Amino acid sequence: MFKSLITSILAFSFLAPAFAAEEVNVYSARKEKLIKPLLEEFTKESGIKVNLLTGKADALLKKLELEGENTPADVLITTDAGRLYRAKTAGVLQAIESETLIEQIPENLRDPENEWFGLTYRARPIFYVKGKVKPEELSSYEALTDEKWKGRICIRSSNNIYNQSLLASMIAASGEEQAGEWAKSFVKNFARPPKGGDRDQIKAAASGQCDIAIANSYYYAAMLNGKDEAQKAAANKLAIFWPNQAEGDRGAHVNVSGGAVTKHAKHKENAIKLLEYMTTKASQTWYAEKNGEYPVTAETKPSELIQGWGGFKADSLNLSALGENNAEALKLMDKAGWK
Ligand code: FE
């Protein structure tokens, strides 16, 4: 009896430090409700405790930079490849080796040097007011500079990274000069000085302020699926149009939410395990159903609502180009007078 007590105390003291070390610290620019349930599921399956800090993307990046090697963060979760690229160039991420991530995530949705990985993707299509615009009148982002759209387009401001990334993709497609000309003509067709978020552009179009809105796909899904009847009614007045689908054209602009292991991660293995967990069918399905995003893995289908929008050709550009062209995009938007 005495001996077995000693043995179990010894066994416990041996196990205790190892058990306590099984944790991972996450900085997330995704809202708590869009990540916490997933992290809880990860803990249940792996036994690894997750400590979560949520905040604004730019603030979290600044925090990582200031904390340097003393940072408690092992994982950074944020949206937009432009921001993931920013974190990479700020030197706060590290390259990791994971066959799972390489196999599961298409090459263009992750960093070529394995410093960040797209975990869900979203499109930024064109939305039009049914009855006011015929889909045959639409074709591409480029064609939105046509005079017929004068005073009819709603889009948010240039300080939002989603639009910076859209223009960055156009720089990649046709060069700075053409992208700059496009921005100038595009701005002339705005219905109003940019204000509000993506949902506000859809609402403005529904209320008659414009006939075309540009927004990320998951906002439209959330408005259609949500409990807010006014938002649902607004979204129902609009339909989705997939731009740049013609043969030989590049496809609709897409972007990701993604994750990375921090440069000074103290729990690197657990951090990799967490990122890998986020590509499992269960996680991918959760994001697809919960937030109307597109799964990055081939084995998982988008939600039923989104499948109902039909498939589309996505721009296959490697998304790190969105980061590389970000500064130039900002400059061009500024020159174009895109507020
Ligand atoms: Fe968003």
Describe the structure.
- The structure is a single chain.
- With 339 residues, this protein is of the alpha/beta class.
- It folds into two domains: 168 residues, Periplasmic binding protein-like II (D-Maltodextrin-Binding Protein, domain 2), CATH 3.40.190.10; 143 residues, D-Maltodextrin-Binding Protein, domain 2 (3-Layer(aba) Sandwich), CATH 3.40.190.
- The chain has 14 helices and ten strands.
- The protein has a six-stranded mixed β-sheet, sandwiched between helices. A four-stranded mixed β-sheet has the order 6-7-5-8.
- β1, α2 and β2 form a beta-alpha-beta unit.
- α6 packs parallel to α14 and α7 crosses α9.
- The chain is globular, with a radius of gyration of 22 Å.
- The site of fe (iii) ion (FE) has 2 residues, from loops.
The DSSP helix count reads 14
Mean pLDDT: 94
> Largest sheet, if any?
6 strands, mixed
CATH architecture of the largest domain: 3-Layer(aba) Sandwich
Structural class category: alpha/beta
**What is the count of structural domains?**
2
* Associated small molecules: fe (iii) ion
The secondary-structure element order is HEHEHEHHEEEHHEHHEEHHEHHH
Organism: uncultured Thiotrichaceae bacterium
Keywords: Iron, Metal-binding, Signal
Family: Belongs to the bacterial solute-binding protein 1 family.
InterPro entries: Ferric-bd, SBP
